[in-house]
Amino acid sequence: MYRLRGKVALIAPNSYVANLALKVSKGFGDIVEIYEGNLEEGVKAAKRALTKGCKVIISRGGTALMIEEELDVTVVPISFTSNDLIKTISKIKLDDNVIGIIGYKNLIEGITEIENLLDYRIYFSEIRHHKEIEEKILELYKRFGVENFIGGEAVVKIAEDLGLKGFLMECGAGAIKRAISEGIRIAKIIVELNEERMQLRAIAEHSSDGIILLDEMDKIKYINPSAQRVLMINYEDMLGENVLNYISSQKIIDAVKKKEQVIAEYDQIKNTKVIFNYVPLMENNNKIGSIISFNDISKIEELERKIRKEQYTRGFVAKYTFNDIIATSERMKNIIEMAKRISKNDTTILITGESGTGKELMAQSIHNESLRKHGPFIAVNCASLPKNLLESELFGYAEGAFTGAKKGGKPGLFELAHMGTIFLDEIADMPLDLQAHLLRVIQEKEVSRIGDDKVIPIDVRVIAATNKDLRKYVSEGKFREDLYYRLNVINIKIPPLRERKEDIPLLIKYFLSIYASKNKMVPKKVNEEAIKILKNYSWPGNIRELQNFIERLMLTVEKNIIDEKDVCEILDIDKECIYDPSSGAMEKYLESGINNIGEKMNKGILNRMEKEYILKILKEVNGNRKKAAEILGISTTTLWRRLKELNINY
């Protein structure tokens, strides 16, 4: 209660009340200070208390009224009680049973109900100023023959001066205690409100937002430094002035005049472009004021650039959403709808599909649809890093864990993905011992850095992806069965482009628009015949291949309408020979040996068929060139040469 020390002062009209108040106040610690003074002297005492930081004055009768009228302070009156009256009457000896009680309303309003409970005829007379006391005494004396008067010191003195009897109304400890309790309650509220006001002012003073507080007449009550800088005027010059004298922005003027709430509206104040809000403050459907706040757009843009730069530099942002997945086929629409449904929970997801089908695009979309969308998204390619480096990247390491370990250690990607999503691409290529470590992290939801026993709790959603057959890998002992089932809670299988041909025209249109914008070119169109060829092409590289193909079209074809000739030339095919790779034509062709190229077939077709078949074999053997050469029936040297000639990087 130290905050309330000295915040309440009791002004006693006489020494008796002062001494009694001093005893009662001890039960409240050092919160209440006691002063003595009646009427004018009481007002002087109250002024002294206010200079010391007092917030609430306790007094009685005329003194309380005078303080309330002359000073800007909350006054709590000490009211007489029925017990006080009974106690007073019991102590005095009267010649008759007629009594007059003179006092201020705040003094006698609690005892008027006792009039019929005693064997006395009691007349109450209310005064509003001490100068009325003599008049009220004489009125009761003449009308009712009252000769005995009870009241404060002034009543006693004036009654006795008139030759009548005056008795001082005793003030009990109970009345004083109640007044002090009420005074402390009010003081506490005032102190808390003042503290909140100071805190709000501090917030406003240091806010980068411009803030203007208006009264009900749109005059400025407060303007913070940020608003002063934008308006280029000092606080003192604007205080109490109508805000419309200083703001020429039409949208803000309209909002103030209409007195209607406006949120996040664009406007310009002087030379500063801003996003502003106007909020009227209402009480009982009456406007009691309003607030104008605004943000400097250039600062918002600068902050956004900093955040984006930091996030993108660290690679912790998912850029794509489901709106970026271009699809019109029912199969893909169903996959997207399912992915949206499962986005809302934290189920582990395994995304499968050939290379180039858009597995990471799907993973980012799931993250941005989930409740974790404001958390980090971290993508890791498990095939791109050697085992030791992958382990330290995923799980982190402690200081001194190995030679060259960073001082202070380094958090792993699982730690950095806390409250977000980690995307493990090409999960099939993760070494078996790391698979065991990964399984523990997923199951226990905690991670330990390399070289450290400390366990760090994490809250991370895991999405994995592969273009391999994980079931086959499990049966061959290349992938842990328990990890497979832990990852494969939900499986999203993205079909290859050749199985969703109806999406090809839409994708072509989308990529044409993207690359036209990127290269500041007029968007080109593809004619129907060319579209048919592209729909029948097998697209072994899937959407990635189509994307690269469209970019090449945009840069190499000068005319605005792309036809079948342009398509066949870039794909290096004959439009009459678009084939189905499942027909076995490539296998039959290679049976005669890669070097024996028949003269009857178009060389471009053969190159394309040969390239696709070699890629197919390489994928099946996980890039093992020796095994691929054995399957193809050629030497590794010949295979290496053909890879180079056909521009195959695998």
UniProtKB/TrEMBL annotation:
Residues 196-244 form the PAS domain. Keywords: ATP-binding, Nucleotide-binding, Oxidoreductase, Transcription, Transcription regulation. Signal peptide: none annotated. Pfam families: AAA_lid_14, HTH_8, PAS, PrpR_N, Sigma54_activat. Residues 325-555 form the Sigma-54 factor interaction domain. One of its GO terms (molecular function) is sequence-specific DNA binding. Its EC number is 1.14.13.48. GO terms for biological process: regulation of DNA-templated transcription. The keyword ATP-binding applies. This is Limonene hydroxylase. It comes from Thermovenabulum gondwanense.
